[in-house]
Amino acid sequence: MPQRPRIAPLPGTRRIECVEENAASTQLALPADELADLDELAVRIGGQGNRYNEMHMGLVRK
């Protein structure tokens, strides 16, 4: 369950078993201490860089 309505994970996969497993994970509730650990880790690591190389980023932005 996302913490905010605008946040949704988009896992990539090629196998139906993985799609089903990813979909089932939406029913998993994490304890507050685990959510706090994940929040702290996300702040510490941060987000940086592009997902794709420069050429492919140009295609994504179109």
What radius of gyration results from the CA coordinates? 15 Å
Look at the helices and sheets and give the structural class.
mainly alpha
Topology pattern, helix = H, strand = E = HHH
What is the molecular shape? flat
> Overall mean pLDDT score?
81
Task: Note the topology.
Blueprint: H1 16-24, H2 32-45, H3 54-60
Q: How would you summarize what this structure contains?
A:
This protein is mostly helical. It is 48% helix and 0% strand.
Structure overview:
- The protein is built from three helices and no strands.
- The chain is an all-alpha fold and 62 residues long.
Keyphrases for this structure?
62 residues, 48% helix, single chain, mainly alpha
